[in-house]
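Protocol step 4 of 5: obtain the predicted structure for the target chain.
Materials: sequence only (see below). No template structures provided, no constraints applied. The aim of this step is simply to have a reference model before the mutagenesis design in step 5. Sequence pasted as it appears in the construct record:
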Amino acid sequence: MLGHHYTHSFLETAVASVNAGCNLELSYGIRNNVFMHIPKALAMGNITLQTLRDRVRPLFYTRMRLGEFDPPAMNPYSSLDLSVVQSPEHRNLSLEAAVKSFVLLKNVRGTLPLRAQDLSRQRLAVVGPFADNPRVLFGDYAPVPEPQYIYTPRRGLEMLGANVSFTAGCSEPRCHQYSRAELVRVVGAADVVLICLGTGVDVETEAKDRSDLSLPGHQLELLQDAVQ
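Step 4 output (structure tokens):
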């Protein structure tokens, strides 16, 4: 509300929010956040004690229903570890979800899908800043990834027995530094080229919007060089 000039201070924002029914502030990383001004608003009479109790009650009711105040032994999830979370069953389900969510916009001359039985006879080049960088494959609001469980395009193809050569061209999505000579060398020796481009959280996230949809840095140049 402050950013939209509906209010002029954190105190005003706290008063307006609580009185309108808001009971939770997302303020990660902000030490002096909006709801820290609620005690002052209460002392000034801008928020009543009954209103404050009404806002807090559902928060604690929800936490109680989730078992946050129960002894750990009563929590059925407390015994789970990576052997369960990363079990073959769950990983196969993740793989199935990923496969079924792909959208192919254009498939010229039936190039796709690449068949595993043909890969050993072809030379593949996997290029681009998203080809083998686990960190940049996750979008905003994603968990902290564990690299050993992440299959980049390069790693996935190599596991299928493909003859894969690789170059990022540029080490990060912003692609300020681009190695054209290395890209041309790798692509020129390949039968099939997979180009992995994009933005990632380095370039755009919530509250970090872009004014256009163009590829950042030298990524478009990388794409054009690979195609040529």
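Step 4 remarks: The longest strand covers residues 123-127. Residues 49-65 form the longest helix (17 residues).
Proceed to step 5.
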